[in-house]
Design brief:
Radius of gyration: 14 Å
Number of helices: 3
Helix content: 10-25%
Number of strands: 4
Shape: globular
Strand content: 5-15%
Bound molecules: iron/sulfur cluster
């Protein structure tokens, strides 16, 4: 799979995303197993309004990478999830979520819902 130019992008696509019930549980597990120091460091970072609550501004990456929602994994590779920095990476297929969303991460679910 072709990769995206995410390095130095500062997570420009990391805003509110729909998540399923299972994804919420997976993220909660990931957050709870983090060492307290690491968790607080991620939680207390300054972010622009609209940036995902789990974007790691210090290290310029997703702070919950292994537990990130499927829509985040799919971003950039589908016609309805095009990366504006690399539109040609998207296939002609459309992304369809496998389950209905339980809510929107960063809006309906915030840090208090994962700790
Ligand atoms: S997918 Fe695109 S917009 Fe998102 S971080 Fe990567 S290059 Fe930037
Ligand atoms: S969960 Fe990770 S990849 Fe998805 S929007 Fe948030 S920071 Fe970005």
């Amino acid at each position: 799979m072709e990769s995206l130019p995410c390095k130095d992008c500062k997570g420009m696509c990391c805003g509110p995303v729909p998540i399923t019930k299972n994804e919420r549980k997976k993220i909660q597990k990931e957050i709870r197993k983090m060492p307290v120091k690491k968790r607080l460091e991620l939680k207390n970072q300054n972010r622009y309004i609209g940036t995902c609550i789990f974007f790691d501004e210090i290290n310029n990456r997703c702070g919950i990478h292994s537990a990130r929602p499927s829509i985040c994994k799919a971003f950039g590779f589908y016609q309805n999830l095009v990366c504006f920095k690399s539109p040609s990476t998207a296939s002609t297929k459309r992304y369809h979520a496998s389950e209905p969303p339980a809510g929107i991460l960063s809006v309906d679910f915030t840090w208090k819902d994962f700790t």
